[in-house]
């Protein structure tokens, strides 16, 4: 069979294919695909359709916050007001943005009509919860504005200004009683870089030692241990609340010198005497049943349990001799408080203190209930 020659056919067809490819995009792309080197991708055609931009700007987190405060049901508004400080911190609001929030809060503080019945020792009464929460939020945002003004300053100058607010030497708004704790938290936000400056100021301001102790313990820098232990040692013996406030913060420092100081504090003998039967609602003409309670021992036992991980229950955890024996033990990991040698008189005291402690706890619970 003779072979068919394709040359005359191609001579006729190729001009027609080229002409069609000039009009049909599909043919043009096919021709390009034929003529492209092997292994390359065909060119992408651009779409002529254009998207119309949305003229409505997207709401910012601040806009969402303001809308929430305005539109939330009055019954649910208090929850948002209570979290406003945390929200402002997350959003890093500047003073101009805070002013916008304050414009929304002031009408709530002055005019919100939502009331709720609250029970108290003086009886039940209606409370404007949203007004109260808005007042607290306005106060906190006022502190935040002051802090924003201080943050661009050099570190030492900034801390000096914060200390002036803490110690009341600079006006901190309408409610200066909260300035100490709030600006103490601002020192905590600075972190360990603030510790040397805090210690320098703390030594010169004994009336504010508790604020500085709390701030230094929250930062958790070991350079503060000597100051905190010295503050505990210098605190008047009769001021049990002050000593307990200091002791509670020592648990963040699991060091030997801290443990030794806490074991020494367990020997505190200042006690509170109460009457158990009066709390139990017995008739007025009753025989008094005095109950002893050692508040410093109780808070120290809690701190020691957190530092050491030893939880022996009230019977042994609030016993000074048990902790002294544990501190002197060669192998503390296997220490057993039931094996501590005691005289008969010491056993009686141990059980009495345990009984008094349990009764005191019951009295405290009934006091809140009544």
List keywords for this structure.
two-stranded antiparallel sheet, globular, two-stranded antiparallel ribbon, mainly alpha, 370 residues, 19 helices, 61% helix
Description:
61% of the residues lie in helices and 5% in strands. The longest helix is centred in the C-terminal third of the chain and has 26 residues, at 344-369. The protein is mainly α and 370 residues long. The strands form two sheets. Strands 1-2 form a two-stranded antiparallel sheet. Strands 3-4 form a two-stranded antiparallel ribbon. The protein has helices at residues 7-23, 25-35, 61-71, 74-82, 84-91, 95-111, 129-150, 155-166, 179-190, 195-202, 209-219, 225-234, 240-249, 256-265, 276-279, 295-308, 314-317, 320-328, 344-369; strands at 116-120, 123-127, 272-275, 290-293. α6 (95-111) packs antiparallel against α7 (129-150), α8 (155-166) runs antiparallel to α9 (179-190) and α10 runs antiparallel to α11. The termini are far apart.
In short:
This protein has 370 residues and is mainly alpha-helical. It has helices spanning 7-23, 25-35, 61-71, 74-82, 84-91, 95-111, 129-150, 155-166, 179-190, 195-202, 209-219, 225-234, 240-249, 256-265, 276-279, 295-308, 314-317, 320-328, 344-369; strands spanning 116-120, 123-127, 272-275, 290-293. It has 19 helices and four strands.
